[in-house]
Amino acid sequence: MERYQEIERSIIKTYRANIWAKFVKACKEYELIKPHDHICVCISGGKDSMLMAKLFQELHRHSDFEFDVTYLVMDPGYNEINRQVIMNNLELLKIPAVVKNTDIFEIANSQEKNPCYLCAKMRRGALYRIAKELGCNKIALGHHYDDVIETILMNMLNAGSFQTMLPKLHSANYEGMELIRPMYLIREADILRWKKYNNLQFIQCACRFTENCAICDNGGGGSQRANTKHLIHELLDYNPMVEKNIFKSAQNVNLDKIIAYKKGKEIHSYLDTYDEDSSSKE
Predict the structure, then answer these.
(1) Does 33 fall in a domain?
(2) 68-110 pLDDT, tens per residue?
(3) What is the mean pLDDT of residues 38-42?
(4) Residue 5: what pLDDT?
(5) How far apart are the first and last CA of the chain?
(6) 220 pLDDT band (50/70/90 cuts)?
(7) Within a domain: residue 253?
(8) How many C-beta atoms surround the C-beta of residue 152 within 10 A?
(9) Residue 41: its H or E element
(10) Are 228 and 110 in contact (CB under 8 A)?
């Protein structure tokens, strides 16, 4: 058995319950993939997107309905070391990816204000544009369960808002395109275990602004997310259910107990119906 086959086998055998089953569950529960979809699996080169590509290969082989998959590496201007690590992993894992070069890092780096925001916005736009050119109607990103709960807390603590990272959404700027997150239910710890089990090395943060080493295990992801991750770990000492409860909170919102909420661009206050609403009674 070749190494890539051993890696594939580990997904459906060793990590069947914690990775494969949760991937399939998310796809079904959130209706992420439908017959005749053409999905662009976006590979950044990190552990999450590389695993996602392997999961899609497995799903595509055994799905009970037809859909197409294109694997895309959008190079925003990686340095040569990071790019080579990505290419080596594509070859090792037998992922037939299309590679598209852009100058996003260079453009974003020329901006004095908010280069990270500009970079993220340009990268997302480039993924949609290239995916559409490739005939795809959906892009798949490798965000996982931990990304979701961290995003909920980051919005509350840093932006003063309650919103989550949705498992799928329509593109605002590319008509007919959707974004899906099929790793929505998979824990990061299980991804790391799969990576270690197979002795794999992936790039971390490949941002040209920081020029992190390609395979240094420095966590990446920026200080806000790192701080939020640390906070969650501290909270676990007091309540082992805290991660599950944060995740569940976005599915258990009681609008009768909310001061105000936004639907589209319109803000609704509980005062709008306070006098005739019996739910506001003690």
Answers:
(1) yes
(2) 999 999 999 999 999 999 999 999 999 999 999 999 988 888 8
(3) 99
(4) 98
(5) 66
(6) very low
(7) no
(8) 19
(9) strand 38-42
(10) no
| pLDDT value of position 217 | 44
For the chain, how many structural domains are there in total?
A: 1
Which residue's structure tokens are 């003063």? 160
Domain of 165, CATH number, reads 3.40.50.620
* Position with higher pLDDT, 217 vs 131: 131
Say if 237 falls within a structural domain: no
Task: Give the DSSP per-residue string, 223-261.
Answer: HHHHHHHHHHHHHHTT-TTHHHHHHHHTT---GGG-SEE
Residue 213 is part of which domain span?
3-218
DSSP state of 265: T
For 70, residues 6+ apart whose C-beta sits below 8 A from its C-beta are 38, 39, 40, 41, 98, 131, 134, 135, 136
pLDDT number for residue 218 = 41
Q: Identity (one letter) of the amino acid at 213? A: C
* Phi and psi at residue 100, to the nearest 5°: -120, 130
In the three-class reduction of DSSP (H, G, I as helix; E, B as strand; rest coil), residue 152 is classed as helix
- 35 within a domain of the structure (yes/no): yes
Do 79 and 55 touch, CB atoms closer than 8 A? no
CA dihedral 26, 28, 30, 32 (to 10 degrees): 90
Please name the helix (run of DSSP H) or strand (run of DSSP E) that holds residue 263, with its range, or none: strand 260-263
Token pair belonging to 145: 């369960």
Rounded Cα gap, residues 214 and 231, in angstroms? 27
For 226-267, write each residue's pLDDT tens digit. 999 999 999 999 999 999 999 999 999 998 899 999 999 999
